[in-house]
User: Which sequence fits this backbone?
């Protein structure tokens, strides 16, 4: 999981870089989050068809019992992330917008979508390919699965998030960077067996 400084954040951002400019607000686990994910998965499958090799609910909203920002993180695997023409136009037509392009980090792309369905719903769609992104794909899924199955690690991670949420952040990536040491610690346990 990458950590970036302000210049690196600006370099990978597509469009205008917007400061986060608000505090991080964590909500108690919402049992609706899996259904929000399922709705997004259906949209992605409908517009991409066979280009969508695998779709996974990741991030804190994918872990029952874990407090989180009400933001659905989704991992999408496509044959070649660098071939944006194979997936980006269809996703943009469905309401997603490309916001991050990282050719030097597993060819990662991140598209975002905001839905106003009475309450705003946010989605981050992380796009990787099995070939170039294999190491990071394994880490993302191992971290999620560890939090789903180990109460102590889930509680430790939530405590860390709550402590960090008390601070103000210029960019949301700074908040993510601040969690990195704890994530790496938990990942070490997850990947060691």
Assistant:
């Amino acid at each position: 999981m990458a950590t970036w400084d302000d210049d690196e954040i600006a370099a990978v951002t597509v469009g205008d870089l917007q400061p986060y400019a608000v505090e991080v607000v964590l909500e108690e686990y919402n049992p609706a989050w899996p259904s929000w994910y399922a709705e997004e998965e259906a949209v992605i499958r409908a517009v991409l068809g066979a280009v969508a090799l695998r779709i996974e609910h990741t991030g804190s909203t994918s872990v029952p019992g874990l407090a989180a920002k009400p933001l659905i993180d989704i991992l999408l695997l496509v044959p070649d992330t660098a071939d944006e023409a194979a997936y980006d136009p269809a996703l943009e037509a469905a309401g997603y917008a490309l916001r991050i392009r990282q050719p030097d980090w597993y060819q990662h792309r991140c598209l975002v979508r905001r839905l106003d369905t009475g309450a705003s719903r946010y989605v981050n769609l992380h796009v990787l390919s099995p070939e170039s992104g294999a190491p990071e794909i394994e880490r993302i899924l191992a971290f999620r699965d560890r939090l789903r199955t180990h109460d102590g690690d889930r509680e430790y991670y939530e405590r860390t998030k709550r402590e960090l949420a008390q601070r103000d952040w210029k960019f949301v990536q700074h908040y993510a960077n601040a969690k990195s040491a704890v994530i790496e610690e938990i990942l070490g346990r997850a990947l060691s067996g």
